[in-house]
């Protein structure tokens, strides 16, 4: 094979880096080229408080609470009609004879929330691979707690509303909102040992998996074979691309959209597609930390051996591409996607969902007849079913010797855990949307979720301060690993 001709000195001159001696090197400017320094300083001053806020673990829960409060205030204001009009605004695309149009509320609940469920799937996959669910004995305790925390609220709900359309809401009080729950534990500060946080995170992951199964099996319409075949083809495309070694994440967007469309066409709620794709995302890194350090150091050594005068732009570009590839492959695709998508899910998608779904008209007319039983059943399920289920099943598992409490945890910690688990918001509102078509029943379920979640949060804070001792060793001892795992939504 004939190689490319060597460039002459005159031809190469245009592609070389500017020759600047160390003494002539200019310091890095305080503002990018073309930017006005005073405006850059103003932007940085405005950004610093926001960055500090986003670093607070409870900030996602705070945003959810603010979004829910805004929705409630808006829906009960003289401008309530604008709230409902906004979320019913039709949006869509027209390409030739193809037309797809849905209300804005549908786009949020069925489109954006698919990304939320995708991150849920990634979290479940990661925990099964190398987290609290990777070892059977370690997973037994959170599994028992989660099962009790799902079954007991559902049974209590069905005891209150055993028949009729209202009975379909049994899944509403099942799931725990991890953003709010982690926020409550954060507010308790040094009273919360890291082991309790990790236990809550594992419980929430299993909770989410149970909610996903319930949505797929009980809150989906009649199954259509053609849609399932389309989803299977899209999933086969994803797996085939993985076998061919395709690493560019954007390349997986088209087959993922096929899976989403197929699941939607099959009559299953389309957000399940997000979980499926998340579960098949690779959790093993190509290079890992050791490979990243080796490859990057090797390339940087090559660059440092070359003089700046002889380094062309092409050579610098190739070196940067190599370093960027090593950086990308230092983490597994699942870890990388969680890190990239979590801020968007926590600080954009979930607050938008809360704003779109928490706007309930607070009036006595809503809580009449069967709708009052719905609200009452949801409140009982979250406030009493959750803690009773968590405590009963964990006590049984411990007595049978199936598992052991992590060091530093006792009955008081489990009591706080059970109450915190009763904070159901995002998933509870989501299932309520699927369970009820009758507006009054849906409004009653939302009122029950909001009231019970707020009460559970207050009770958890009071109980935590009363039962949990303040340990000064926990303040600095909160592991970064536990903080990273708080990315579950």
Structural commentary:
This protein is mainly alpha-helical. Among the domains are: 58-89 and 100-118 and 146-220 and 342-487, Na+/H+ antiporter like domain (Na+/H+ antiporter like fold, Up-down Bundle); 288-326, no CATH class. 66% of the residues lie in helices and 2% in strands. It contains 20 helices and 2 strands. It has helices at 9-12, 37-55, 59-75, 80-87, 104-130, 136-160, 178-187, 194-218, 225-243, 253-266, 271-279, 288-305, 313-328, 333-357, 370-399, 411-420, 426-435, 439-467, 473-477, 480-484, and strands spanning 90-95, 98-103. Strands 1-2 form a two-stranded antiparallel sheet. Helix 5 (104-130) packs across helix 8 (194-218) and helix 5 (104-130) packs parallel to helix 11. It is globular and about 80 Å long. It starts with 8 loop residues before the first helix and ends in a 5-residue tail after the last helix. Mean pLDDT is 80; it is low at 1-26 and 474-489.
